[in-house]
Specification:
By secondary structure, the protein is of the alpha+beta class. It has a single domain, classed as 3-Layer(aba) Sandwich (Protein Transport Mog1p, Chain A), CATH 3.40.1000. Helices cover about 25% and strands about 30% of the residues. It contains seven helices and nine strands, in the order H-H-E-E-H-H-E-E-H-E-E-E-E-E-H-H. A nine-stranded antiparallel sheet has the order 1-3-4-9-8-7-6-5-2. Helix 2 packs antiparallel against helix 7. The longest helix is centred in the middle third of the chain and has 18 residues. It is globular and about 45 Å long. The two termini are about 25 Å apart.
Length: about 230
């Protein structure tokens, strides 16, 4: 989820051939802007590139988030959900727009390449089952393990069509944390899984579309897989 965007991006180097392939599947600023309908920029931050170790690792146990299994829906490409899979390479990038009046204020995109297409499909199938089980669940997140900073993330609208899985997560803090809405989507093609999270502003929520911008951006990424 987009709160993980805060901080400086960096690159963890891996095999040059593998890393280049994953990073090429990430959407460009132009891809994101054309898909979501307003400008989003990396502001010069470089993508994270490497293996499973570059994926976010903020939630690992029930002490961090409850139920921990549903963190796969609320957050973009958590490391814990990909560690059991035969990951060859990964890349992720964040995009921002803090201007007033935009529909979408931020995005996370991630690309994970697995050892085989069969492994990618099996991993995606496990995500479908997990997301469906999390539909209607409220996930209690404790950033940095602190109960005083608990955030509730309500999962809804889980749907799967044409090998693309989507959902909505609405967060609200218990201690003066501003409510937020995120569109999530994940897709698979060949040996590659791609993920997207979009931060939807109140104005953006008033303009529902189908397919959602997150689904459309996943489709843009999947088209780069070949």
């Amino acid at each position: 989820m987009l709160p993980s965007l805060v901080g400086c991006a960096h690159t963890v180097t891996g095999s040059a051939r593998q890393a280049a392939r994953a990073v090429e599947i990430l959407p460009t600023e132009d891809d994101v802007t054309a898909t979501v309908g307003n400008t989003l920029s990396t502001f010069g931050f470089r993508p994270f590139i490497g293996n499973v170790e570059i994926l976010p690792d903020g939630y690992r146990t029930e002490a961090d988030a409850t139920p921990i299994a549903c963190i796969a829906v609320t957050d973009t490409a958590p490391r814990i959900v990909y560690e059991p899979a035969p990951v060859l390479e990964a890349a992720r990038q964040s995009y921002f727009n803090w201007d007033a009046g935009v529909d979408i204020s931020g995005a996370d995109a991630a690309v994970v390449r697995l050892s085989t297409a069969d492994a990618a499909r099996a991993t995606f199938a496990s995500f479908v089952r997990r997301w469906q089980q999390c539909d209607g669940v409220s996930v209690v997140k404790r950033p940095w393990g602190q109960t005083k900073s608990e955030i509730d993330a309500d999962v809804s609208e889980v749907s799967e069509a044409n090998m693309v899985l989507s959902a909505t997560a609405r967060t609200h803090g218990r201690r003066n944390v501003q409510a937020a809405t995120y569109e999530r989507a994940i897709g698979v093609r060949a040996d590659t899984i791609v993920e997207v999270s979009l931060a939807i502003t109140p104005q953006g929520e008033r303009q529902p579309t189908a397919p959602t911008p997150a689904v459309r951006l996943v489709q843009v990424m999947l088209d780069k897989v070949g």
